[in-house]
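Appendix B, record 7
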Amino acid sequence: MKIFVTGIGVISAIGLNAAENLQSIKALRTGIRKSAEYKLMMGEVQLSNKQLVQMFNLPDEDYSRTTLLALPAAKEAWGNNQNDSRIRTGLISSTSVGGLDRTEKYYFQLRNKTSDNYSLMTHDNGRTTERLAEELAISGHISTISTACSSGANSIMQGARLIEANKLDRVVAGGSEPLATFDVRGFNSLNIYDDEICKPFDQNRKGLNLGEGAAFVVLESEQSISMTGNKPLCILSGWNNATDAFHQTASSPDGKGAYLAMKNALAKAGITPDKINYINAHGTGTGNNDLSESMALKNIFGDALPSFSSTKGFTGHTLAAAGAIEAVYCTLSLVSQATLPNVNYSSAMPETGMIPETHFRSTKIDYVLSNSFGFGGNCTCLIFRKY
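Structure tokens (predicted):
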């Protein structure tokens, strides 16, 4: 069964829609800069909550930032689609922190005895999903996924599985993540935060930069596109989730979980490793992750490693949204027939000698592989094919 990607939407530190994101990538323009609030290098969406409400003509309600970022991305992906009782449509959204930004506001207000209990109404992870479902008028299937940094990719994988199992015909899938104080201080406490723009796969990498954003894709079956008339952008041909359960936060040194996810996704797509033309790596910029992923890539591709890069030097690590944002970037890679750059790279890691792609380079792209790895060894790989 073919599963088509017919819509994409994204908001990140480098753009408020897919076209702006692509233009920033082409121009090698990073969105990571020092945060006025946190005094750390971050990929912030340069719009306040109030500006997001106004810009996207949203109702003047008390939303979490997770929801405010998710709505424009999901609406862009949904486009001019209409609900049709003949098309079984679902929504799968993902997040790690949910409405934690609102919960933090409640906490600090509580300390000053000025708390508004309504803030707690946006705390749960499913709140954003429910709000998206209302906005898009989707009621066939609604679910929320939270598997740390692989959440967005797992949402897309789950959507594909539901279509393949003939449970749904069309799925809007993706993820949204804001910057929250809890996350920022938590990652900083792990001593894996770079005080400069992160350097994925570089010998001198020092850690990650957090980012925020949201992205969604529309997946459709052949039956669905025969009724919607939507033009496919690409095909989602392979997917897999695996785990090495090595550590609560660290990846295994040999990249076992990543290796299994890629190996099984290739098998699902029915292709051999030599068919992959470009890899959008997880590539956070931390010492552990980049070396572990590199070992897994070496084990899969050997000496025939295709062009690869991490795009987190543009957006920062957007956690639950990362897999969805990078799925959009993979779609743009296929549509543009170009590899995407790994910014801020200068020297190869001595353990592997692997050199990432550093330019937006036009070339023939048939298959793109996208990696997303979460805490606890939750590893997911998606494979997209040119339409």
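Remarks on this record: The chain has a mean pLDDT of 93. The two ends are 14 Å apart (CA to CA).
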